[in-house]
Every structure is written in C-alpha cells, then in structure tokens.
Specification:
The chain is α+β, with helices and mostly antiparallel strands. It is built from 5 helices and 17 strands. It has one domain: Metallo-beta-lactamase, Chain A (4-Layer Sandwich), CATH 3.60.15.10. The radius of gyration is 17 Å and the shape is globular.
C-alpha cells in the first residue's frame, strides 16, 4: 500500500470552532485565544491494489486560483480526483467533511465524481439533528439522495479488506477503519486517535463526547497496534502523520 498525507496546513481552533491558519515559523500560540489548540488538517490517500481510498475530506477550502484544496493536493501527488474510488468518513465535523462537495457553476456537486462515500447512517442523522458550529450540513446534504452514498451501520467489512467499527468517543457514532493488504495493516482512528502524543499519554479531551472512552480506546489501540505492527494515520498531527510504534 502507498500512503500519502494531504496536508491542508496548520490551524488553531478554540471553543468558537473556527479554524484559523497558523504559520509555524511566524505565529505564536500564546497570541491566540486562551484554550486554542494547534492542529494539522490532513486527509490521507491510501492506494491499494483495488482502490484509491480517501480518508476524510478536509476543510473544503479553495486556493488562490479557486481550486478546491484537496483537489490540488491530489493533483500535486499525481492523482486525478476523478480516480478516487472510495471515501471513508470517520465523522462529519466540518474539518473532516468540508471537501465532500463544492460549488460548480452555481450548484453544489460531489467533489469526487466516481467515488462511493461511506458514512455511518447514525452519524449522518445526528449531524442534521445537531447542526451547530461543528457541522456544516450544506457540505454533505447532497449525500442524502446520491447513488454514490453508502450508508453503513455498526461494524463490518467493505470489499473483504476494509474493516470499520463504530467507536463513539469523539461523537456518538464516530467510526474508525483498518485497511489490510499483503500482510500490512493501516489504521485510521479519526478524531478518537488524532495525534501521536495522545496515544502516548493518558489524556481526556474536553471536546470529546465521551473523553474517558476515547482515552481508553487509544490505550487499547496503541497496545494492539504495537504488537501487530499497525501503521497509524494521525489526521491532526503536525510532525508525525504516519507512524508505527
């Protein structure tokens, strides 16, 4: 398997849930609002013998030329967005779902025209029932009636090699993925396992729906992943997006 991090840059985010760009060389965290967190926004591409997989879709920002950032990042790595075959979505908070769709010729279209979008049905429903600052439903409402949408529930397997599991923790129906091929296992823990440092330290996040459960899951995954040689993908880690213990 080939893994490509698609960095959209570093940002600070506070209780307002606004993502403010952060220049690592010039900006100082202490100059931001009290309680601001410094995070990377980093979807991943995993290329297997069967698929070009995209794991979460970033913020949905466009660059100076009006090109969707995640499209440009793919193109920079020699991948045409139309060649992506599956989108695996951990949850629908705006920093993970912003690139699901975009405006084109004054209408909203799916950003990946040939891909199937895999999302937990309970998470999708919850987003519309709780459309506050964490969710921007305009970004993914198009999935409601799209033939490209694959609503999944509970735990299961996609195409015999992609395992998914509902974990809760960060939000009630957050899900994680394992991709296994040729003896290699890649793990994507979304926002339950967003950074390497959280795997190494017992840490209860106030922003989690169930912080204690998230902490317990991280400890469990670290131990199992270390034994089984998983490759971890950390969506919000600036220094170590891809890591093996």
């Amino acid at each position: 398997m080939k893994i490509i991090p698609l960095s959209e840059g570093a940002f600070t985010v506070d209780k307002s849930k606004q993502f403010i760009p952060f220049d690592l060389e010039k900006d100082k965290l202490q100059d931001r609002n009290v309680g601001s967190l410094l995070v990377e926004i980093q979807p991943f591409v995993v290329i297997t013998s069967k698929d070009i997989l995209l794991l979460d879709t970033g913020l949905g920002f466009t660059n100076a030329n009006g090109v969707l950032q995640i499209h440009q990042n793919l193109l920079n790595n020699g991948i045409n967005p139309s060649d992506v075959t599956k989108i695996l979505l951990s949850h629908l908070h705006k920093d993970h779902s912003g690139g699901i769709s975009h405006h084109q010729n004054r209408q909203r279209v799916l950003s990946f025209e040939n891909a199937s979008y895999y999302i937990n049905k309970q998470e999708f429903d919850f987003a519309f029932e709780n459309a506050k600052s964490s969710y921007i439903t305009d970004d993914f409402e198009i999935l409601k009636n799209s033939s490209q949408t694959k609503f999944i529930e509970g735990n299961g397997i996609i195409d015999d090699y992609i395992k998914y599991e509902v974990t809760g923790g960060h939000c009630p129906s957050h899900q994680v993925f394992w991709i296994e091929e040729n003896g290699e296992k890649v793990f994507f823990g979304g926002d339950v396992a967003p950074q390497l440092q959280q795997m190494r330290n017992k840490f209860i996040a106030k922003y989690d729906y169930d912080g204690k459960k998230s902490m317990q899951l991280r400890q469990q995954w670290k131990e199992q992943g270390e034994q089984e040689k998983w490759v971890f993908l950390f969506y919000h880690d600036i220094k170590s997006p891809v890591f093996k213990f």
